[in-house]
């Protein structure tokens, strides 16, 4: 390696790693050369890091921002133009290809998770896309062009900055992988940590054809359980059968409580419950001795001012005592230590073809496919109408390179 190349290379490294203000002396060959200190990220390299395959990252982007607290998503959230953010030292700048819709998007816009957080704040929980920029420390483990998925705030944007430690590398930017981030992980961890599933037990999954219900059905079947799933149409019932659900119940055509009493007189051992209200009451009543009911949500009440539908809580203590049963809540952020292992296991299942990840991109929705950030509003409405089959996902941009 020539002396001139070494000097040139050493100068670049020094400029990149230098920090603080003032002037330092560096040795290049046999001479001391005074050079100004530079920040930890040398911006002279930003053109390289932030111009993935000549993609010409714009100076501005669209994003969704919660501007006032309301359970009405359209009233709470507005589409805004903002500068494309610059990643910090340990961050990645991700061009979002797909973003996921969750029932809890409304709880977030209503300020129910953290009352101390006041508008404006960014909306959206999960995204998948390509890295188009990154900080110096982040570049030790990631490269521009790599596909990653993430679970965190601010996903409803064309570009999102995410700490490198919070992303999960995925094989490609397919929406099926996005379904695992919140919906799949919730089912996997909740059933593993709170369900205590045993082969031969009966498991009831409410809203079984939805984003997270589809995974609860599959994980319960993998544990050797008999699975009962509620849904709102014959089409969804047919889908549940393809997942291995032993007894789909279309509650619009059959009386759920009557079916459970008649066909499962000894009760069900585990309930994976996301609806709330009357469905919760029915689930409590059908618990077997030592049954476990896991509350992962109560979507029927999210669009109300209180966020809740009334339940018969007054008799709940007696009902649980009589059966030595239990009701436990599950909130994914409380189980983040389990998250990476859950994602790893589910990605392996996908690679082996063992897991179905049904995606609803809105092809059959009013207004057509969910494409572009503006369609997030329609996608939320679609999910709350109960018409979705699988996980509701919005496509933001086409792939930069078809080979990715």
UniProtKB/TrEMBL annotation:
Its EC number is 1.3.1.48. InterPro entries: ADH-like_C, ADH-like_N, ER, GroES-like_sf, NAD(P)-bd_dom_sf, Quin_OxRdtase/zeta-crystal_CS, Zn-ADH-like_protein. Coiled coil: none annotated. GO terms for cellular component: mitochondrion. Residues 72-394 form the Enoyl reductase (ER) domain. It is an enzyme of class 1 (oxidoreductase). One of its GO terms (molecular function) is zinc ion binding. Keywords: Oxidoreductase. Belongs to the zinc-containing alcohol dehydrogenase family. Quinone oxidoreductase subfamily. This is 15-oxoprostaglandin 13-reductase.
């Amino acid at each position: 390696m020539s002396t001139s190349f070494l000097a040139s290379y050493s100068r670049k490294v020094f400029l990149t790693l230098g920090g603080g203000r003032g002037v330092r002396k560096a040795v290049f060959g046999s001479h001391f050369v005074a050079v100004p200190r530079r920040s930890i990220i040398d911006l002279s390299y930003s053109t390289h890091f932030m111009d993935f395959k000549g993609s010409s990252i714009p100076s501005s982007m669209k994003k969704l921002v919660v501007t006032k607290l309301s359970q009405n998503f359209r009233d709470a959230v507005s589409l805004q133009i903002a500068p494309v953010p610059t990643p910090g030292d340990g961050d990645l700048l991700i061009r979002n290809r797909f973003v996921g819709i969750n029932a809890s998007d409304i709880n977030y816009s209503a300020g129910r998770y953290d009352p101390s957080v006041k508008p404006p704040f960014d909306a959206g929980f999960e995204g998948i896309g390509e890295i188009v920029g990154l900080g110096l420390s982040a570049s030790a483990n990631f490269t521009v062009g790599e596909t990653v998925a993430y679970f965190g705030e601010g996903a409803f944007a064309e570009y999102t900055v995410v700490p490198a430690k919070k992303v999960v590398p995925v094989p490609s930017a397919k929406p099926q992988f996005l379904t695992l981030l919140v919906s799949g992980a919730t089912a996997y961890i909740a059933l593993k940590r709170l369900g205590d599933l045993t082969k031969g037990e009966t498991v009831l999954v409410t809203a079984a054809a939805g984003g997270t219900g589809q995974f609860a059905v599959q994980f319960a079947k993998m544990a050797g359980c008999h699975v009962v799933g509620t849904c709102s149409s014959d089409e969804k019932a047919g889908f549940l059968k393809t997942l291995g659900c032993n007894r789909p119940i279309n509650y619009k055509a059959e009386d759920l409580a009557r079916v459970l009493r008649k066909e499962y007189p000894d009760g069900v051992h585990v309930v994976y419950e996301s609806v709330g209200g009357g469905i919760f009451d029915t689930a409590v009543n059908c618990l077997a001795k030592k049954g476990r009911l896991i509350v992962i949500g109560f979507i029927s009440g999210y669009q109300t001012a209180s966020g809740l539908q009334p339940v018969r809580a007054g008799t709940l203590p007696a009902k649980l005592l009589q059966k030595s049963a239990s009701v436990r809540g599950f909130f994914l952020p409380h189980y983040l230590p389990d998250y990476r292992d859950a994602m790893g296991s589910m990605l392996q299942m996908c690679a082996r073809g063992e897991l179905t990840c049904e995606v609803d991109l809105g092809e059959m929705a009013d207004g057509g496919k969910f494409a572009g950030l503006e369609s997030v509003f329609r996608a939320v409405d679609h999910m709350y109408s109960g018409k979705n089959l699988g996980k509701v996902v919005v496509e933001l941009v086409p792939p930069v390179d078809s080979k990715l």
